[in-house]
Structures are given as structure tokens and as C-alpha cells.
Specification:
Elements: H1 8-17, H2 29-36, H3 40-52, E1 56-58, E2 65-67, H4 69-81, H5 83-99, E3 102-109, E4 112-119, E5 134-135, H6 141-147, H7 152-162, H8 175-188, E6 191-194, E7 201-209, E8 215-224, H9 230-250
Antiparallel strand pairs: 1-2, 3-4, 3-8, 4-5, 6-7, 7-8
Helix pairs in contact: 2-3, 5-9
Length: 255
């Protein structure tokens, strides 16, 4: 659709909303203006309008803004009506019941991998990244699955946006290393994160495909590395791959 159909003020409002995340829950007018490259008066008008509609709310203590409860209510509608989440939840439950570890459903959103559904482990020591949190794809098992069948142009655009933030001595730090890792993911049909984002944490992930065979999501389990010993690792891999395939079948995948 042509550019004449776009309303700049609405686009700016959505751009502002997309600045908020689990990683950055509160932002002030000056910070928003700087990151949007807009005048503070323009940002103030948009933010005030969003606050009036309940989409944003101001924290009286910090005078910064955060996402409002109206978005939460609308998000519940989306969650309940989302086919992918609905068909995945039984498999997440089954994975957590079988492995005892937290299971996740992850999508790519722009240049980040975003957790959108989860079944939390009931163990005292457990690992979880709450739904709504994003991570860099190059250092997560689920993220590497989502990158694994992208063309090089798509991968390059994500590298340009993110770079290679380093978290541990195991984090991938170059395009060459990343492409080699993605080749292994394609060959094996699964990906692993062995302490690449957080030391002592392991993740196993496998692709969810649509009826055309395209990767649309990733299912993963994550937990302390000590519980992913050699005697259990192979079983965990097959269980994750099996449930990812089961979800793919529910979405119409026949490959």
C-alpha cells in the first residue's frame, strides 16, 4: 500500500510502544525523544494521548512511563485467539512433564528472538525467561533455530542490527562462526545453547514448521547444565524434536 495511506502520528505512537520490553519496562520523555530522534514536545503529546487511552501509564515515583493495563487486556485476546500458541501448549506441557525442565515457544520479531509461551518447571532450581522477554538469537538455542534457514541477506540484517554481544566465553562472536553453527543446526535438526548466554545454563531447541515447511517458531527446553548430562542429553534432544514435529503436524506440515 502506498505511503499516502500512512498516518505519521499513528506510526510514531507504535514506534514508541515498541521501545518498551521486559528489558526496558520504563522510559522517560527525554529518553524516548532521543531514541526516536524527535522533539520532546512531540513525544510528550503522543505519550500523553496514549496515557489518556490507558495504553501507557506513568509511574508516580520515577515519572517515567510504562505499558498500561489496556495492552495487557488486548494481549489476552490475542493470546487466546493465537493458533500457534493454542496448538503448542499441549506439547510444552508434555515436554516439561517428561524432562522436568522449563519449555518455551519462541518467535523471531525483527532482529530479536521473543519468548511468547512457556511451561515452567516445578523444580526448586530452574531456568526460565518470561514470555515477552527478547534475547539475541546468536546466543540462544531457539534463536539459532530461527536463523538456521534464513538466507544470508536476512542473517546479515540481523547481524547489522544486533552485532555480537558477548555474555560468556562460549558466546559466538563472528559471522563466520555463526554461519558454521547454523549449518550444524540444519544438519542435526536441532540447536543447543551451552552456556552461551548464561554460564551453567543449557538449552535444546527444534524448529516448528508451517504447512509449507517454513520455520515459523522454535520449541525449546532450558535448565541447569548439570541436569543435561550425557545420559539424558540424547533423550532430551529426541523429545524436543518430537514435540516440535508434533506441533508442525498440527499446523499442517507433511514433510
Amino acid at each position: 500500500m502506498g505511503g499516502n495511506y500512512f498516518i505519521n502520528s499513528i506510526q510514531r505512537a507504535f514506534d514508541i510502544l515498541e521501545l518498551f520490553s521486559y528489558n526496558e519496562r520504563e522510559l522517560g520523555i527525554s529518553e524516548i525523544a532521543r531514541r526516536m530522534d524527535l522533539h520532546k514536545s512531540t513525544v510528550h503529546r503522543i505519550v500523553t494521548t496514549l496515557e489518556n487511552r490507558g495504553v501507557l501509564e506513568q509511574n508516580p515515583g520515577t515519572e517515567k512511563y510504562r505499558l498500561g493495563l489496556k495492552l495487557y487486556r488486548l494481549g489476552l485476546v490475542v493470546h487466546d485467539d493465537n493458533e500457534l500458541i493454542a496448538v503448542t501448549e499441549p506439547s510444552l506441557k508434555k515436554l516439561t512433564d517428561k524432562t522436568g525442565e522449563t519449555s518455551n515457544l519462541v518467535l523471531i520479531d525483527g532482529s530479536k528472538a521473543v519468548y511468547i509461551a512457556q511451561r515452567e518447571s516445578d523444580r526448586m532450581i530452574r531456568m526460565f525467561t518470561k514470555p515477552g522477554v527478547w534475547v539475541y538469537p546468536h546466543c540462544s538455542g531457539a534463536g539459532k533455530v530461527l536463523l538456521s534457514e534464513m538466507d544470508e541477506e536476512g542473517i546479515q540484517s540481523i547481524i547489522d542490527a544486533n552485532g555480537f554481544p558477548c555474555y560468556t566465553e562460549n558466546t559466538i562472536l563472528s559471522k563466520k562462526e555463526l554461519l558454521e553453527e547454523l549449518r550444524k543446526v540444519r544438519d542435526r535438526g536441532y540447536a543447543m545453547d551451552n552456556g552461551e548466554r548464561e554460564e551453567g545454563v543449557m538449552c535444546i531447541a527444534a524448529p516448528v514448521r508451517d504447512r509449507h515447511g517454513c520455520i515459523v517458531a522454535s520449541i525449546s527446553i532450558s535448565g541447569p547444565s548439570a541436569r543435561f548430562g550425557e545420559e539424558r542429553l540424547g533423550l532430551f534432544i529426541e523429545q524436543v524434536k518430537g514435540e516440535a514435529l508434533a506441533v508442525s503436524r498440527r499446523l499442517g506440515f507433511c514433510g
